[in-house]
Amino acid sequence: MADLRSFVFLDSLQPQLAAFLGTIAKGFLPVAGEASLIVEISPGIEINRVTDIAVKATDVRPGMQIVERLYGMLEVHSTSQADVRQAGAAILDALALKEADRIKPRVLSSQVIKHVDDLQVQLINRNRQGMMLIARESLFIMEVEPAGYAAFAANEAEKAAEINVVDVRMTGAFGRVYLGGEQRDIDVASVAATKAIEALTGRVASSSRKD
Amino acid sequence: MAGIDLRSYVFLDSLQPQHAAFLGTVAKGFLPVGGQASLFIEISPGIEINRITDIAVKATRVTPGMQIVERLYGLLELHHDEQAEVRRAGEAILREIGASDTSRIKPEILSSTVIRHLDDRQTQLINRVRHGHMIVAGQSLYTLEVQPAANAALAANEAEKAARIKVLEIVAFGSLGRVYLAGEDRDIDVAWPAAENAIRGLAGRAGK
Fold first, then answer.
1. Helices B83-97 and B49-59 sit at what angle, rounded to 10 degrees?
2. Which of A188, B21, B77, B97 has the CB geometry, 3.0–4.6 Å to A161, for a possible disulfide?
């Protein structure tokens, strides 16, 4: 039976997160304002069945279906929140799971680097897929487990403040969020991201990496 | 060194922060930082760019960011904290190939277009191919096509000095140079004349 890791509903994809997904997604591209659902399970390969359920039961479009080292991740979206919620319900039903069976996210690291140096921004810019980080901006970075919740943290931060979404890693062992911007905006965004993660319920799981 | 055709000779007095970040993303060589001076040289035949780089790095302490041999032409980008050092590198290169800076081809703008209030769906296509900032729905998009290609670097750098735009993409090598900038209408409307004027201000010979 599949182990539910992340189950996160985004009510409205913010413009930059939608743009970011549009950059990295190999599937159907979302647009801003759509609702989105991210489901992460183990064993990873079972995600194929999860996608099958979602696309047959509702009108949602899959943006990403990723089988990585350990886990499997699916992102679906639709202009209709109801469709996305229905897709989530159908997935849980088929897997005989409840939303509360997801893992309660745990923040492993959350920090702000102020006034990032010229030299450091160049390293970050080579690896990011979203906005560029500009020298002397501040950088907020968060590491969260399971990975799927990184998308939720980024989306809530973008609602709260005028930040630049530099990178969001939402698959793998850990989720990672990189946000850039003026210090005043980063201060607001970091609080919003942290609160969003802390507010999510779920079962408490100690770090369960198997490698 | 006869037979080397100087296509572009573009000196940037001060790499603007986004342009520096952009080069930091795409450059395979030594990464520049904001505020450094930079020189873009484009020649034909392309493979001869190896010789151009040799001259620059042996004559001065400049660091090369990009050396690209593409289908037809060769591009070298080099930079340094000191403007003087970059200018010296340029002079050494020009002397070696028997050219002056005005031996370059006078840039020609082939297209300069503003698309206002970009649609959600179009932003997604652009975001998949750019290397710089992302464009978000509702922003305006400025696109420029210029030849020779390296002049795109000057257009983007001057636009960034003039207005609070976001640099999405700069293609400064190949047959045609391209610049993609995004932003609010008010900023785009300041940025595009700055980009055009910078290019029009360059002297050079008529292109073939």
1. 130
2. A188
B35: closest chain A residue by CA:
A118
Instruction: Please state the length of chain B.
Output: 208
Nearest to A132 among B21, B124, B137 (CB): B21
As for the ipTM of the complex, it is 0.85
Q: How far apart are CA B76 and CA A93, in angstroms?
A: 59
Q: What is the pLDDT of residue A61?
A: 97
Q: What is the pLDDT of residues B27-73, one digit of tens each?
A: 999 999 999 999 999 999 999 999 999 999 999 999 999 999 999 99
A40, pLDDT greater than 90: yes
Alpha carbon distance A9, B21 (integer Å): 33
Question: Would an 8 Å CB–CB cutoff place B136 in contact with chain A?
Answer: yes
Sheet holding B37-44, edge to edge: B5-12, B37-44, B74-80, B63-69
CA distance B128 to B112: 22
Predicted confidence (pLDDT) per residue in A152-187, tens digit: 999 999 999 999 999 999 999 999 999 999 999 999
Do A122 and B137 make contact, defined as CB atoms within 8 angstroms? no
d(CA A75, CA A62): 6
